[in-house]
Amino acid sequence: MELLLAVAVEQMTGGDTRSLRPRVTAEPVVNMKRVLATVPPEELADVTDFALERLARAQIKMGADFGFVGSRTTKLLANLAAARRPKTLYDPACGIAAALLATVGLGATPERLIGHDVNKRALTIAAQRAALQNVELELTCTDVVGEDVDPDLRADTIIAEPPFGLRLTNADRLTDRRFVAGPPPAASADMAWLQHVIAHLTDEGRGYVVTPNGPLFRGGQERAIRAELVRRGCVEAIVALPGKLLPHTALPLAVWVLRRPAETQADGAVLFIDATMEPAPEDSVAKWLNDPSSLDGVPNRVVPVTDVLVGDAALQPARWVEPETPEPAEIAGRYSSGWHIIDQEIQELRAAGSSAAPVPNFPAARVMTIGELIDQAVLEVRAGQTKHKLEELPADVRSRVVTATDLRMNELPTHDKFIDHADLTQPGDVLVNTTPAIRALVDASGGNLPTAGLHRIRVLASDALAAEYLCAVLAGPWNDRFRGGSTVQRARLLDLEIPMLPLADQRAAVDALLNLSQLQSRAKSLADGASNTATSLLEALRYGASLTDTSTGDVGDSQDNAEKATKGTK
């Protein structure tokens, strides 16, 4: 990556970048130059960014340390910054300048672009990316939370996605003039980043900081700092974001919209937006903040500062944004429909229960292992294909792979055309996975290609063993004792025990197990129906709805509602 960037910059600018190249022999340099010579100069930035994005997603730690080109949080911050048409844009944790350069890519033309970061290698990449995009960056290598390298810096727009979970080790935090709301605790730098951003804003400036949710509600010193920031009008808005916005973490995040402390409490309110259920908030947050009318349909609420302070300065939007109030008739309809489902499922359970009587008097079984059944030519076992072997197979065979995930989903693909191939399953083969739990499934139609992690078991003596019975008893609780491993639990397939019964008893056992499975499914539907009905009852208590309110239709209409609800429940 370093060689690619150095050679690309050299090709773009004509300068000497040998000092930035990694120490390699001449041949890779010549090869890199030859390849990049085929790329038009105006596309070099896109090529290197593509490589950076792929590398960061393959090596997650690098992305977490340097920043992710093209990440959803980068897009979010760039959209927020570009919407303000900044004159001075500052990122105190810029990494490889992903958000700064993305803002310029959206058409912003700041007079100054300033980036600070503690990682020298990241700043080198940032400078190279800026050179390829013909953008002038002011970059400084510094530990921002430990040292304010430019106390006089003021920016009208500041964006930051600081590292999560950083500890503070410097005692200077106790006397640092930036921390006007109080010294941040040593255990977390989150409040230090927020106060650093506020300290460097112009009077009309805005800062946008992405953090995990912890700083919104944690107690102790952080609660006291949070309350002071709210009291002084520094918190204009909080936007709750969904999880999985970053490749390296599933944590839900939040955007803080910050401003300078006011002599009074500014407008005396905080805007809370709950975007946790929004599919693409990175495309919408800037519009929501600049045009309140665009918030229709998005849970939000403006809360007076006094109320926030009384509420322990908790800033989670879900704490303040009330859920949409359902219509009383809607609650009554769901309640009536729920009882219809309950009655229906009880009747189905009774009918299923009457036909699911246990089969008595199974004869004593002879217990044999899979290995012994192979030796007796009852079974044939074959391991799934490795990735290397898959590449050697014909394309029409290779396209029919099944994995352990298919077994977990309890569903195998079916195909219009059956292909008879030695590596594909035959109808009635049993597919087994023993990691971390033991799962088995009969491949009724065949024609699938098991991959690594799966075993294909073929019954050779169908007069001695039924495939459906084998599938059922493989996951018997007695076989759990064969699972072992210090990290991932797995069982050795050949050790698994099969209680051998006469074929007629095997089929009777399979029928009984099938009936019990249907009972289990019915019981779950009943439990879900009861749970949904209880929810409607609680909503009626909370919102004062009459459960006999049928103003939107007759109670008889609940039959249609019940059918819809039944589909959802099941």
Describe the structure.
- Helix 1 packs across helix 2 and helix 14 crosses helix 21.
- The chain has a nine-stranded mixed β-sheet with strand order 3-2-1-4-5-7-6-8-9, sandwiched between helices.
- It is globular and about 90 Å long.
- The protein has helices at 2-13, 26-36, 44-58, 60-66, 72-83, 98-105, 120-132, 190-199, 214-217, 221-231, 285-290, 305-310, 317-320, 328-354, 370-375, 387-390, 395-398, 404-408, 467-474, 503-543, 558-569, and strands at 88-91, 112-117, 138-141, 155-160, 201-212, 235-240, 253-258, 269-274, 300-304, 366-369, 379-383, 401-402, 429-433, 439-443, 449-450, 455-459, 497-500.
- By secondary structure, the chain is an alpha/beta fold.
- Strand 4 (155-160), helix 8 and strand 5 form a beta-alpha-beta unit.
- The protein contains 21 helices and 17 strands.
- The model is unreliable at 551-570 (pLDDT under 50).
- Helices cover 40% and strands 15% of the residues.
| Rg result | 32 Å
The overall pLDDT, averaged over residues, is 88
Number of strands: 17
Query: Structural class per helix/strand content?
Result: alpha/beta
Strands of the widest sheet, in order across it, are: 3-2-1-4-5-7-6-8-9
The largest sheet, given as strand count, sense and whether it forms a barrel, is: 9 strands, mixed
How large is the count of helical segments?
A: 21
What is the strand content? 15-25%
